[in-house]
Structure formats: structure tokens, C-alpha cells
Amino acid sequence: MTDHPTHRPRRLRTSPAMRRLVAETSVDPRQLVLPLFVAEGLTEPRSISSMPGVVQHTRETARAAVREAASLGLGGVMLFGVPEHKDALGSGALDSDGILNVAIADARDEVGDDLLVMSDLCLDEFTDHGHCGVLDDAGRVDNDATLEVYARMGVAQAEAGAHLVGPSGMMDGQVAVVRAALDAARHTDVAILAYAAKYASAFYGPFREAVDSSLQGDRRTYQQDPANRREALREALLDVQEGADIVMVKPALGYLDLLPLIRDHVTVPVAAYQVSGEYAMVEAAAERGWIDRERAIGESLTSIRRAGADIVLSYWAAEVARQA
Ligand code: PBG
User: Fold this and answer.
1) Domain segments of the chain: what residues?
2) Which residues contact residue 231 at a Cβ distance below 8 angstroms, ignoring those fewer than 6 apart?
């Protein structure tokens, strides 16, 4: 006579209907944000070899992508600009005719307030040296000189129509100066999605192709060391103190441990960015038949949500929402 187990967790896994009833986490279109690259001077979208399925958009195709994002019920789009000309100061970022600012205006023109239009607030796409800030005479990224440019860039993006700006350069004090500049220009309703814990990561590799990055060297004097965890919390707490409305962890999958840590210590929403390298790994393996693409996408997004992200930036956002 064998004893029957009293506790049978498997009972709750017996059928798809039962599993659906007890699922603790879901990934809803409203929680997903689609990053989009808009390139100056293109007449056709240009594919990005390291990110199959992702393109550099023309202004026209970007409009269509933004419209689709709205009709799918996504949380928003995060716009990145790819300018034709770069200089040491990244002046294209401030110009109202600069590619990112016109892309923001195009997006707002398409969707009004039906979809949140977010913009990357960083100089790396606009500088000829590829760094996220301006350089001092010794060639080092000058934190405080960069802050002045970020403040103006934030206002330019708000004037173009951004609902949220996303300072991603990891300069100390960036959230405070952008907030103050927005408020002084009466853009008190424009929100700040702060890239609070952004690591110096190899997983941004494909993104560098996506934005035609001219970076030599690395970003280790401003982006975080992958070895550090407490430091991410410190960064997030500082950003909240400085006025961030949402804080973000980036990349996502390798840094899942930071999500519950930050989630438990702040009261604002927490976002995570599933970056280009995370996308490329799954796409490459799937292309070779080494992994079930759809399941891997669903599982990675679910894991990021389960770990504590309220919002996820993902290059698969539209595809996942189309299937929802
Ligand atoms: C900086 C920025 C980067 C990414 C988003 N914003 C690149 C970097 O810091 O090198 C990476 C996004 C990705 O890899 O998907 N403007």
C-alpha cells in the first residue's frame, strides 16, 4: 500500500485552462515599449544585419510603425535618431530640424496622445567620437559640460512633442538638470524615464550597428560595472530623488536580480530594457534551428516581468502584441 502525496502542485498544471487561471505573471501590450531607429536621408528602410527584422526607418516608415504601435495598444515607442552628420558637440541633437526631433514631431503628428512618444536623451548618436557626452581637453567625457547640453536637448525634445524623455548617458545629475530645464520651459507634464542602472555591456553590440556608432574605446567611466549590485540601487535612488518618474535597468536578462531589489526600494514604476544583444542571440539561434524562437521570446519577456519590471522595452514588442 503506497501513500498518496498530500500536496500535488502538479494539479494546477494539468491543462492549459488551469495553467492560464493560475499564471502569476502576464505580458500585456500596454506594458511593452518598442524602440525605433529613424535615419536621416534614407529613402528606403535599411536592414541591420546584426538585428534581423529590425530596420533603420525612413521618416515615412517610422510614421507607419508608430501608427501600428498605437493600434496594437503598446505602451509607447522609444525613438532613436541616426543623423547623417555628426560633430564633436553633438549639435544635431539640439537642432529642431535634427533627425530625432523631427521624428518625435512626426510621431506626435501620427498618434497625438493615443500612444506615448518617448525619446532617447543622449549624445552618442550625434557625436563624431561616439561618446554619450562632450569631451574635455584631455579627451575625457566632461560630466558637467554634458549636463548643459542634456538640459537643452530635453527641452528640444519636449518642444518636438515627446511625452517622456529618456536620459541614457549615465552622467551624474542628469535627471535633475533635465527636470529643471523642462520645468523652466513650462514642460511640467513631460515625464522622465531615467536609465538609472545602465551597465557597460557587451550586449549593446548590435545597437552600435543600428545607430552607425562611431565609438572608439568604451563607456566604462560612466556606465556601470557589471560586477556591481548595490551601486545600481544607489543610482536608482538618486534618480528618484532628482525627479525621475520611472527608473530603468539595462540590459534586462543578465541583470534580473536588480529588478526586485529596485522594485522593493522605490515607489515609481520600474522598467527594463531587453537590449539588442539579447534580441540578436535569440534570433541567431532560431535562424539555425537551435532554439524555438517564439517560446524563447515569450519566456524571456515573462522572466523580465516576473523579476519585477512593470514596463519592458523590447524589439519584439509589436510582434508579441500582434499575437496577444
Ligand atoms: C545610448 C543607448 C545605447 C542603447 C540605448 N541607448 C547604447 C550604449 O549605451 O552604448 C543600447 C540599446 C540596445 O543595445 O538595444 N544612447
Assistant:
1) 26-323
2) 197, 224, 225
With contact defined as beta carbons under 8 Å apart, do 150 and 167 qualify? yes
**Active site annotation includes 198:** yes
Tell me the per-residue pLDDT of 251-309, one tens digit each, with 9 for 90 and over: 999 999 999 999 999 999 999 999 999 999 999 999 999 999 999 999 999 999 999 99
Q: Among candidates 86, 310, 322, which has minimal Cα distance to 213?
A: 86
Note the CATH architecture for domain 26-323: Alpha-Beta Barrel (3.20)
Nearest CA to ligand 1 atom 14: 204
Question: Cell for 9?
Answer: 502542485
The grid coordinates of residue 303 equal: 522572466
- Position in ligand 1 atom list of the atom nearest CA 279: 15
Q: Is 86 a catalytic residue?
A: no
Q: Which of the residues 57, 131, 179, 198 is marked catalytic? A: 198
Q: How far is the CA of 218 from the centre of ligand 1 (A)?
A: 12
- Provide the 3-class DSSP secondary structure of residue 156: helix
Distance CA 104, CA 37 (A): 11
Closest by CA position to 258, among listed 227, 284, 289, 282 = 227
Contact 259, 303 (CB under 8 A): no
